[in-house]
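Notebook entry, structure prediction.
Reason for the run: the old model in the group folder had no record of what sequence produced it. Starting over properly, with the input documented here first.
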Amino acid sequence: MNYGHIRHKHHGGGHRTHEDTQYERYIEDLIRKKQNDPIEFIKTLYSRHGIEGISSSKLRKFYNLIVGIDLDKDNLEKIRNALLKFRILLEYDYNRDKRIRNFHTAMSTYLDTVLLPISNEEELRTKIKEFRDVFEAIIAYSKNK
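New structure, fully documented this time:
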């Protein structure tokens, strides 16, 4: 199924619509297909789903949270806490600025389906390195838009 036409609509009270659920499933499928090619993942998101609503300063804020994780020294608990902080700040910013809806959905789905379920410390470190690559691609791609 092609979900490129789906756009989120704000519904009061934080209720998720059928479209929200479809879009999240689409993002999960896109992550599975493109997880080894972060540049293609980002290009697809930007070209089909318009995640341009986020400012470069917000992108940097989120990127700095991920870069701030010391993959050489931090233990699993500290790494997971940093990811949860990222997730919470993502929710906070989304609730303040609905224009970042597609960015929010893409990143929260990535966190929830790829990073947060991992319980193996080494695997999590590897996936965070890949997530940093995804973020660098987002920043680079947003500069060229």
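Summary: The first helix runs from residue 18 to 34.
The old model has been moved to the deprecated folder.
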